[in-house]
Amino acid sequence: MFDSVTELLAEHRELTERLADPAVHADAALARRLGRRYAELGAVVAAHTAWEQAEEDLADAAELAAEPGEDGEAFAAELPGLTARRDEAAERLRRVLIPRDPDDARDVIMEVKAGEGGEEAALFAGDLVRMYLRYAESRGWSCQVLSATESDLGGYKDAQIAVRGTGSGPSEGVFAALKFEGGVHRVQRVPVTESAGRIHTSAAGVLVLPEAEEAEEVRIDPHELKVDVFRSSGPGGQSVNTTDSAVRLTHLPTGIVVSMQNEKSQLQNREAALRVLRSRLLDLQRQEREAADAAARHGQVRTLDRSERVRTYNFPENRIADHRCGYKAYNLDAVLDGDLGPVIASLQAQDEQRRLDALGGGAA
């Protein structure tokens, strides 16, 4: 049983030795990659150890229960509980052996854009940005608004946010949670601009990118970049409309365009644009990988399908409904205040069950 765990335990031992080598830490990118994998395998090691101990305890009790007398009867009485504990440990081990998304431990860059609906859509995009910032704060993550274009009434036409986690492991990774937010979010409410009190429907799109690291797998050839500089517009201090501090990067092989103007210096805007560009290229690699593996992943939730309406926020009923997993609750006010955990947990549970089913119900 659980034959597949043998290779993973061996890999964990090998990583333990490699991470103890100071030479590995001289390469920061390599150390980060090995550290992420080590943390992921740590969960497998812990679950396997617990399962082995439960198996051993059950076997010992079964042997002693076969002895005549009161001692045998006492151990026999313990068998049902020990069997249940063994079965629970086996189920935990099955679940940690489910192949994980290789990007789960990564930090993310989120892009929120107002859709059709004018000013109301921009206000809703602003609500989503605040929801994610508050949720991140509740998780102890740090956030940085890389770029934002405000609307006249204080919403966001678009915003880009970098979210960084605590580095505590893949299951606690930022992408592991926020990747399910990708898609079209729909709101139903009476807009502040509506004088007749009619309920309108508008939408905002959310894009969640696993963040690439500069020295890691996404390398950008400077010769493949077209760099344009221009004057900033909007809030930003004395540099606005006086210096060419805004930067637009065009990645010629893919046609991806990233513009930044929030910072006051051209260098800072260029670095922020490169950060987003690397993440978009990493996401492109991810989509190509998923497309190549589409048959194996058939039926799995397509968390990065931008065209799918993934969730509805109904203000008159204070209701939130996720259309992928069937989650529904009447605490929309709390969710918009950052209480997003139960929604995400429901999506994670569905995703985990689908992958477990794809493995035939176990990893034995």
TrEMBL record:
Location within or outside the cell: Cytoplasm
Post-translational modification: Methylated by PrmC. Methylation increases the termination efficiency of RF1.
Segments traversing the membrane: none
Protein's name in the database: Peptide chain release factor 1
Family annotation (Pfam families): PCRF (PF03462), RF-1 (PF00472)
Domain of life: Bacteria
UniProt-listed SUPFAM superfamilies: Release factor
Species for this entry: Micrococcus lylae
Coiled-coil stretches noted in the UniProt entry, renumbered to this chain: 260-287
Prokaryotic-type class I peptide chain release factors domain segment(s): 231-247
Broad class of the protein's primary localization: cytoplasm
Similarity remark: Belongs to the prokaryotic/mitochondrial release factor family.
Gene (UniProt): prfA
